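We both want to read discrete structure tokens more fluently, so let's practise on a single case. Once you have written the record down, we can walk along the chain together.
***
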Amino acid sequence: MRFTAVRTAAAALSALAALLAPTTAHADPAATPHRHAPGDALTLPVRDALAALPVQDESRTGYTRDKFRHWTDADRDGCTTRAEVLLDEAVQAPAVGAKCALTGGRWYSAYDDVYVDSARQLDVDHLVPLAEAWDSGASAWTAQEREAYANDLDDPRALIAVSAATNRSKADQDPATWLPPSAGYRCQYVTDWVADKTRYQLTVDPAEHAALNEILAVCPDIPVTVTIAR
């Protein structure tokens, strides 16, 4: 189920203050200590969540996409992670054929504010791209942890169905260099970005941190709830 449980905001903020102490800038992401146990839930204003993320330089050394095994069928129902997201996010349900082949259906691509009538014209985007996750701490994870990240169906912000054109224009960029073409979606996008990085206790680089701060300064400081994944 693509939903997360919550705790009270007061308890979460207390836990954050005690456990999410800032780290030294430019440190090696692999050296970042584990601060929360999987399953811990936090609720806090998005600007506070951003302030709690460690600011560190990034390194893509050693990254290849195949280090994140993705589009698996974890529940063995015949539908891969990609198909599960498409089925979940369809605004008009497609027909499901053999081997979970999808025909018909309709989807809303929030990145560019368009409707799409074919699953083949959609990509399922990792909101925080795989390469960005690697740069931000996932290089130190196990293969199993990276696979779980790449197929995260437990938090609806992790994966999103969008038009293939916008997803490919984004590629592996962070909000310092790419934002959704639909200006009305940008506050939601950066809020979800911060939530996803908090969920996986990833870092942000200085340019990314500055861009997120600038955008969130004119966005509602809404509370975000995350359940720590690792």
